[in-house]
Amino acid sequence: MGVKIITDSAVDLPNEIVKEYDIEVLPLLVLHGETEYEDGVSINAYDLYMNMRNEKVYKTAQISPGTFVEVFKKYAKENQECIYIAFSSGLSGTYESSLMARENLLIEFPEFQLDIIDSKCASLGFGLVVLKAAKLAREGCPRGEIVETVKFYAKHMEHIFTVDQLEYLWRGGRVSRSKAFIGDLLNVKPILDVEDGKLIPIDKARGTKRLFKRMMEIVEERGVDLAEQTIGISHGDNLEAVEIVKQMMQEKFGCQNFVISLIGSAIGAHSGPGTLAIFFLNKKPML
């Protein structure tokens, strides 16, 4: 019996990959008014983006410790080794909830082998970390080796992304109202990254053509052996931009292996429709 990989829905992996590698994905909560949804279960990301374009506002909530206890206990009873890889603690309290759950569960099941890792990543950058763990687990790698590889991938995963409207980041408290208004008025697109688990702006460009050119420059500055990597591209209902960026990555860097996914509701509720993100490693992987 191999190591079970558990994660949460901020991972934004395509469903076919989740099923192929038997990854357990716990849904974060998405809130609209008094209505509570489970990300990827009772709310569809395409519907969320359509509603956001019609000025509906969503909020999100972390997974409760009780939910973690319920899931972890199932594996503890089976004496199943597990690794839970969590959405960045800098963006959600889910990691802390999982630690609380493990602490409580170990009272009843002191021999339960469960590692919990704060990925410090988000969306498909997070997803590529989890995918690597799942591949190693399927190959029968020991838990310790998987944990070390996960930590390496998480530490060296770049998140280069942009949003279509700064308005959405303002709603999530990421930029000031004045910056959002002026930026959207002037068609200024921010370029952002996730560093040490937190969202930070690193540059900006005016207009789509300049934006994509600058994003490619940043990828070139930070990436290593890009042609040999699996590149992640996620989007907020923006496949046209995905195709443009994918072609640029192929032509400029020789990239051939891609994972492309729709950004789920938990992330999309804050980034909004039109978001585009590129994920890659800034250091050659160990495995």
Which helices and strands occur, and which strands form pairs?
Blueprint: E1 4-8, H1 15-20, E2 24-26, E3 29-32, E4 35-38, H2 45-53, E5 59-61, H3 65-77, E6 82-86, H4 94-108, E7 114-118, H5 123-138, H6 143-155, E8 157-162, H7 166-171, H8 177-185, E9 188-195, E10 198-206, H9 208-222, E11 230-235, H10 239-253, E12 257-262, H11 265-271, E13 276-281
Number of helical segments with 4 or more residues? 11
Return the average pLDDT rounded to an integer. Answer: 90
| Global structural class | alpha/beta
Distance between the termini: 22 Å
Proportion of strand residues: 15-25%
Spatial sequence of strands, sheet with the most strands: 2-1-6-7
How is the biggest beta sheet arranged? 4 strands, parallel
Tally of individual domains: 2
Q: How much helix, percentage-wise, in residues?
A: 40-55%
Any idea of the CATH topology of the largest domain?
Rossmann fold
**Which stretches of 5+ consecutive residues score pLDDT under 50?**
174-186
Determine Rg (CA atoms, Å): 19 Å
CATH class wording of the largest domain = Alpha Beta
Shape: globular
Topology as a string of helices (H) and strands (E): EHEEEHEHEHEHHEHHEEHEHEHE
CATH architectural arrangement of the largest domain:
3-Layer(aba) Sandwich
Annotation, overall tally of beta strands: 13
